[in-house]
Specification:
The chain is α/β, with parallel strands linked by helices. It has 3 domains: 79 residues, Orthogonal Bundle (Multidrug-efflux Transporter Regulator, Chain: A, Domain 2), CATH 1.10.1660.10; 78 residues, Methyltransferase, Methionine Synthase (B12-binding Domains), Chain A, domain 1; 111 residues, Cobalamin-binding domain (Rossmann fold, 3-Layer(aba) Sandwich), CATH 3.40.50. It has 15 helices and 7 strands. The strands form 2 sheets. The protein has a 5-stranded parallel sheet, sandwiched between helices. Strands 1-2 form a two-stranded antiparallel ribbon. Strand 6, helix 14 and strand 7 form a beta-alpha-beta unit. It is globular. It starts with a helix and ends with a helix.
Amino acid sequence: MSDVEASGYLRIGELSRRTGVAPELLRAWERRYGLLRPARSSGGFRLYSDADERRIQLMRAHLRSGLAAAEAARRAVDEAVTAVDGEVEAGSAELEDAARQLRGALDAFDETDSQAALDRLFAAFTVETALKEVVVPYLADLGERWASGDASVAQEHFASNVLRGRLLGLARGWDSGEGPRALLACAPGELHDLGLIAFGLALRRRGWRITFLGPDTPIDTLADAAKRLDPALIVVSATARRRFTPLIETLRRIDGTARVAIAGAGATASLAREAQVELLDADPVTAAASVA
């Protein structure tokens, strides 16, 4: 991890990657509206903070709502000032309202309103807070409602596809940088990967590089990737214990110095002991913090 990453500051190229705004436009917003408040490195480079990233996301949300650039910037700055360290504390009325809006839009099969709710959520809160306090709890609640018959298969598929697309958009370029590499994969036959994507996003925010193999990863593919990439961490996820069974011997034999862990609803302490790996049994954001 570079000194810049370790300090929590970003160069403009990384800020551009995270926000989807071209460096030239970021400089223009900084110059014209004072939207960004960069620090300076000892070599004179501009270094940007999470607060700068948050103001950019707020401005983008206001621009999409139809505001002129100057008014969008003013509101973004004003709204960011009302937060504690740039973020409204988790559990606040604003966060609860964001969760309510997202659930209502997803449950109603309204993609436009769902994307707008996600725009507001990620503009107002850090990725970690949005995931831990809104997205992951919504998915858990949706799964429970589906199991009890209170949500349809169609609702589960719609919500999962909307959220998966958005999270993978945030993940763009998450294998870049100089930090340790994490290799993430779903067990063979496992199609639910949203929790693993959320884990990767949270780990990326801590400077890690992410290689994501996705759902239903064949055993040989996982072993080959581990050999070729020599990652610092390998995490395999599944929602059912039986998905891990074919992997136990492979996980034991993986060469290299990588930490190996299992995660998801199918991961148990007894299974981890049998496979001689670690167990990640917390929510994805908390698990990423414990790993990092």
